[in-house]
Amino acid sequence: MRVLGAAAGGGFPQWNCACPNCRAVRSGNAELQPLLQSSLAVTANEKDWYLINAGPDILRQIESFDSLNAGPGIRETPLAGVLLTDAELDHTLGLLSLREGSSLTIYGTKVVQSCLQSAFPVFPMLKNYCSWEWQSLDPGIRQRVGPLLEGAGETITVEPVPVSKKPPLYAKSVQELDCQEDIWEVGLVLHNEDSGRCLAYFPTLEKITPAIEACLKKADILMVDGTFWSEDELTGLGAAARDARSMGHLPISGPSGTLELLASIPAERKILIHINNSNPILKKGSVERNTLERLGIEVAYDGMEMEV
Fold first, then answer.
1. Taking Cα atoms as reference points, which of 131, 145, 136 lies closest to residue 108?
2. Pair 97, 59: CB distance under 8 Å
3. Are strands 156-164 and 143-145 parallel, antiparallel or unpaired?
4. Non-local CB neighbours of 212 within 8 Å, separated by 6+ positions
5. CA 119 to CA 110: how far, in whole Å?
6. What CA–CA distance (Å, rounded) separates 120 from 21?
């Protein structure tokens, strides 16, 4: 199974942020580069590609990889579908840019499907542009995505793992009405049945549950929420009123942060993704970046490629 992208970014756009990292990017500091929104593209057969989340940068991400470019036929595309981990705008706005992809299959939980029909009505908006198929992901149940051809090598097996019952800010009224127990956010474990290897993809982590910890310990490659280094990263800058955990992100450092757990897991690769532009790990040579490197933990970058 081939994995492309691993775009690392998350959070405020650089043009609208006064944190030290963003000021450095705008001033042309070569040590810091702006990042695209967090996303992946995966394939089991080098023909049918599936995006994991579709953010506002999705067209730039597609254009940056020859394997994802359209053609040779008119309206022919290697994109076969999109797997959504949640209904957040950073992960779904790009669906509007994919409106010409009339043969796509969209995967997500039932509450995400409901949200994209109502609170953020993507599907009603697109009904006159394209006709997409929906496939529900049931947390805790493995299922194949893609054409069910003979041989596991032609498909990707996905295991959705519950992460959070927190809805997007724009959909809070939906939860208050009738969705208090629904799983709004999931992580995905992508299994290569041929090799027996798997990749755990968790762009958001509200807390480490026993189920999440078990998935992280069994995966060969980890791609885990690295949004914030510290609990008060944004509140300390005066950039937000809420701290990291109240935004649904475990900080990397500090008590019960992700760093301690990741350091103890013997995965082949451990990669931090979905990194906010305020995070000091983006700066090579920083104390925080050096700490990660000593522990064998990587920082994702646009254009990563790997085999699972």
1. 136
2. yes
3. antiparallel
4. 161, 163, 187, 202, 205
5. 14
6. 32
The answer to whether 11 touches 89, Cβ cutoff 8 Å, is: no
Please give the biggest Cα pair distance in the chain.
55
pLDDT-based confidence at residue 152 (cuts at 50, 70, 90): very low
The DSSP symbol for 231 reads T
Q: Which two tokens stand for residue 2?
A: 């081939």
Instruction: Specify the pairing of strand 39-43 against strand 9-10.
Output: unpaired
As a whole number of angstroms, the distance between CA 119 and CA 182 comes to 15
Contact 272, 224 (CB under 8 A): yes
pTM for the model: 0.88
Both ends of the chain: CA-CA distance in Å? 5
In tens, the pLDDT along 265-302 reads 999 999 999 999 889 999 999 999 999 999 999 999 88
User: What is residue 166's DSSP assignment?
Assistant: P
Q: What CA–CA distance (Å, rounded) separates 87 from 139?
A: 15
283 by Cβ neighbours in 10 Å (0-12 / 13-18 / 19+) ranks as: middle
CB burial readout 169-195, b (16+ within 10 A) else e: eebeebbeeebeebbbbbbbbbbbbee
Q: State the DSSP code for 81.
A: E
Residues 6+ away with beta carbon under 8 Å from 190: 1, 3, 42, 156, 157, 158, 159, 198, 199, 201, 308
